[in-house]
Amino acid sequence: MNTLFLHMPKCAGSSMREILQRKFAVTYDYDSFFRFPKEERMKLILDALRSPEELPNNTFIFGHFFPVKYLGQIKNNKENFRLITFLRDPIQRLASHYSFWQNSNFSDHYLWRKMKSENWSFKEFCLSQEMKNFYSQYLIYIPLSTFDFVGIHENLNKDWEQLCQIFEIEYEKLPHINKSPNLLIKELSDEDKNQIENYHSEDISLYLKFKKLKNNFKVM
To answer: Is 218 a domain residue?
Structure first.
């Protein structure tokens, strides 16, 4: 069985990677379609939809890949792969993403260059067309029922322990890696926060749906 672990950006994936790479022969895929402007990105997505990449059996993929890259139109037998990810509150994720980009250099990413050249504020970053409903962009053409496990960042330790049981590995406490402050959210006015939440309503609805589930494994 192949394992596809979608490291959703700024959702504690780096911490999990540090442990998983010692337990499994992990193949990294951080060649995210998100690095490309929308027109180029959609071409890549449609190509993957028609002709997904094939993997040798028992491959463990970890990274920022769009799941459609390997699953295509989900014609694969569900017994042949398991799809896993962790999510966090979408606005908190945006704050973490913005803070990380503000203090990093990703000159090969068109959006980072645009953000830096135009000196975006956190509000402008949140309300950019490119960031709108970030989760939904990554999960394009992938039904929610495809996921075998969706952990919640706010329940990180408990959900990580559950995932270790699923992977049949010994539980280890997660290290703190790339931890970013969320003070940016507190600095928003109520009006700005409401505007941002409305703009990302699709992602917020998706996140709340998973958060309410009592058992994240076999979510649907």
So the answer is: no
The number of distinct structural domains making up the chain is: 1
Tell me which residue range forms the domain holding 13.
2-212
> 66: domain CATH number?
3.40.50
Give 212's contacts (C-beta < 8 A, 6+ positions apart).
none
**196 belongs to a structural domain:** yes
Phi, psi of 99 (to 5 degrees): -60, -45
Considering only CA atoms, give the Rg of the chain: 17
* pTM, rounded to two decimals: 0.91
- The Cα 60–Cα 62 span in angstroms is 7
Task: Tell me, yes or no, whether 104 lies in a domain.
Answer: yes
Instruction: Encode 152-211 in three state secondary structure.
Output: EHHHHHHHHHHHHHHHCCCCCCCCCCCCCCCHHHHCCCHHHHHHHHHHCHHHHHHHHHHH
Q: State how far the Cα of 11 lies from the Cα of 20, in Å rounded to an integer.
A: 15
CB atoms within 10 A of CB 6: 25
Q: Average the pLDDT over 14-30 and give the result.
A: 95
**If you average pLDDT over residues 51-60, what whole number do you get?**
94
Tell me the per-residue pLDDT of 31-55, one tens digit each, with 9 for 90 and over. Answer: 999 999 999 999 999 999 999 999 9
Query: How far, in Å, CA of 94 to CA of 10, rounded?
Result: 8
Instruction: Tally the C-alpha atoms within 13 A of residue 133's C-alpha that lie toward its C-beta.
Output: 12
